[in-house]
Amino acid sequence: MTFYDRRDLGLLLLRLGAGGVLVAHGTQKLFGWFGGHGIEGTGQFMESVGYRPGKASATAAGLAETGGGALLALGLATPAAGAAAAGAMAGAAAVHAPNGFFNQEGGYEYAATLGLAAIGLAVTGPGRLSLDHALGHVLDRGWMVPAALGTAAAATAVVVGTRVKRLQQESGNGEDEGGSEADALFDETTPS
Q1: How would you classify residue 75: left for phi > 0, otherwise alpha for psi between -120 and 50, otherwise beta?
Q2: pLDDT at 163 over 60
Q3: Residue 33: pLDDT over 50
Q4: Which residues touch 39 (CB under 8 Å, ≥6 apart)?
Q5: 26 pLDDT exceeds 80?
Q6: How many Cβ atoms sit within 10 Å of the Cβ of residue 183?
Q7: Burial 56-95 (b: 16+ CB within 10 A, else e)
Q8: What is the pLDDT of residues 66-78, one digit of tens each?
Q9: What is the pLDDT of residue 173?
Q10: 97 three-class SS
Q11: What is the signed CA dihedral for 116, 185, 162, 29, rounded to 10 degrees?
């Protein structure tokens, strides 16, 4: 008989909690579930905060959150799942960063916390109460952690950097950055 320790149970609870929240937010973007705005509304929001094209950005964020969250909850392909979720949360944190740290002011603390939880799970691994463990860790090898996190970090840097450059160019031309549209579409606590 296999006995599981506190670490395995703790990792399971962390995976289910963080993964479940990510899935819920991702399905808001993709399908409009749980009071979300679906691809169309989320795409408009993404455009308004500088992520263009909006629908493609909404789809990418929704897939990263839904897919990464589901895989984290299951403990399957944990390095890739954590990296995808962390990348999506870094993009969300970039939108909220001008508002400071605290969530009640529209800050980035919520997105940062989910992103750090996802990175922590990617680094630590899913524990024995996971599909990765049941499958012999074929999708959870040690080399996959830096590869997945490095790839996600590079892709996120390009996407967020492009957004920042675009917003700087637009503000230099006297155009509005679209923050008021974003506030109208989404509650400040919703990660992008």
Answers
A1: left
A2: yes
A3: yes
A4: 29, 30, 55, 58, 59, 62
A5: yes
A6: 13
A7: ebbbbbbebbbbbbbbbbbbbbbbbbbbbbbbbbbbbbbb
A8: 999 999 999 999 9
A9: 64
A10: helix
A11: 60
For range 123-149, the mean pLDDT: 97
CA torsion angle for 25, 29, 35, 37 (degrees, to 10)? 160
Q: What is the secondary structure of 115-145 as a DSSP string?
A: HHHHHHHHHH---SSSHHHHTTTTT--TTHH
Both structure tokens of 104 = 């009640």
Q: Which of 91, 92, 114 is nearest to 19 (CA)?
A: 114
Cβ within 8 Å of residue 142, ≥6 positions away: none
Per-domain boundaries in the chain? 6-185
pLDDT of residue 182: 39
Residues sharing a CB contact under 8 Å with residue 120, sequence separation 6 or more, in sequence order: 14, 82
